[in-house]
Write the structure tokens for this entry.
Amino acid sequence: MAEPRVTRIAQAYPTRVEVRGRDLTSDLMGRLSFTEYFHLLLTGEEPTEAQRFFLDLLLVAIAEHGMMPTNVAARMTLAADPGSLHGAVAAGILGAGPVILGTAEECARLLEAGGDPKEIVRGLLASGRKIPGFGHPVHKPVDPRAERILELADARDVSRRHVALARALRDEVELTMNVSMPIAAVLLDLGFPSATVKAVPILARTAGLLAHLAEELEHPLGFLMAGAAEEAVDYQSD
């Protein structure tokens, strides 16, 4: 028998909107913050105080990191078409792969699988794979965002087995633990499904992109960046 084709997220009716079984206007609007609402949309449940606090914290931690390639791509796209804000946001998000956005989802799968940290590291290195959540081109010897997340996880007593494994992996790896690993560890310890972990940096970076694009409209840099790229590369004919 075929699976029933259903959605459990929302439905609009002539006089009301229902979201996750709640009335949008009479129940959710004015009661939930956007962070709380995002949790409800993502998981179907309203967050506990700890879930709300750390989801908010992680969104703040990962939203902005300067002139990253994603922000540059978005700015140049808007410079080329100032009326296409949505296209510029899309251009930035499309470039937000694991190198720029981080490997939180991969870290979550690694932590969820568990195991002996030494064996985990040995197995990854033997297979020629990078260890997700470690290494950063700027932050050395520590990523201050990662350390702050772990500090607050301890202070608020939410550190459990995934945070413990993340720390054990850090002891085995001679690279900076970047922000992706504690994002994954804390979210898992708070009960978030691993499939939802990547949603957090995507939403956060969207906010950062919108800030860059608002600035781009007021103080354009896109064509300056394009010109700098042109100057940085020499042309050679075949």
Q: What stands out?
A: Residues 66-230 form a domain with the Cytochrome p450-Terp; domain 2 fold (CATH 1.10.230.10). Strands lie at 10-12, 17-19, 22-23.
